[in-house]
Amino acid sequence: MRRIFVVVILVVVSISLVESARATQGGGGAYPNGAEDFMSGALPPPGTYLLNYMEYYTSDRLNNNNGNSSMPGFKLNVFADVIRTVHVTEKQFLGGSWAMHLFIPIVYMDVTLPGLGSDNRTGLGDIIIDPFILGWHGKNWHITTGVDFFLPTGAYDKKRLANPGRNYWTFEPVFAATWLTDSGFDVSVKLMYDFNTKNTDMDYLSGQEFHADYAIGQRLGDFNLGVAGYFYQQTTNDEENGKKVSINDGNKGRVAGIGPAVRYNFNKFGFSLKYIFETAVENRPEGGNFWFKCSYAF
Which of 102, 147, 155, 209 is deepest in the core (most CB within 10 A)? Predict the structure, then answer.
């Protein structure tokens, strides 16, 4: 269990200045859906851990409220590399192990919006912290909870199309659970709900968001093989200048994703690969995610 972690968060992109791209500001939330997969509910034993996450996201389609392409010629490519440190203490609270973590993301993005031009940028994304994570364990089950804080540290300029940062705070309660049978069959889910503050530079308030990552797979020796994916639904309307955004009836985003996933563990090291296809997309870019994740237990 040493190399298995919970509450994996990366920073996704912000595409400002385009009303039709919004569903939350920039057509996406602070959390990159699909970041977590196998054993997402299992907090590791006491100790310190180092992880590195790499994500490549590409899209050539921007969907409207009906799920139809709304901007021919739209292109988006994002590469993110995130260093995460996790410390699990010896202390317990309410019977659960107490842990904390920190994420530092570096993001490159290249976006083309017909009529507005192209832009690319590399910079620091929004740092994420959680000083109070709790994890519980049973014979075949694991549960982890926490509240992640997304800090507006990322590079942001309202006059640019490419922004690694989002220029607002996000508070994200998390509940993750795993059921692992004696034969190694793994069913995991991570549930999240996001509360966003206003982007004061744009006077824009992104709506609240529910999203869930999931994975189903089988352990075969040092490997885990299966499928992983996510579901995302924005639950409240976007607001601009204190009023509901009129375009696309509040610009509520939605997306589902699924794809193959594999993980390999060896001593103190762990590696995982997955590719997730997006479908049923509304008010967001539609594309695909490639993930590579590695971890080391000190």
Answer: 209
Tell me the C-alpha distance between 210 and 260, whole Å: 23
In a domain, 3, yes or no: no
pTM of the model: 0.89
Structural domain for 170, as ranges = 19-297
- Strand 243-244's sheet: what is its strand order? 198-199, 204-205, 239-240, 243-244
Count the domains in the chain. 1
Would you say residue 4 lies in a domain? no
Counting Cα atoms < 13 Å in the Cβ hemisphere of 254 gives: 15
pLDDT-derived band of residue 248, with 50, 70 and 90 as boundaries? confident
- Give every CB contact of residue 37 below 8 A, 6+ residues apart in sequence: 188, 213, 214, 215, 217, 228, 261, 263, 272, 274
The single-letter code of the amino acid at 272 is S
CB 262 within 8 A of CB 273: yes
CA 201 to CA 227: how far, in whole Å?
40
pLDDT, tens digit (0-9, with 9 covering 90-100), for 53-71: 999 999 999 999 999 998 9
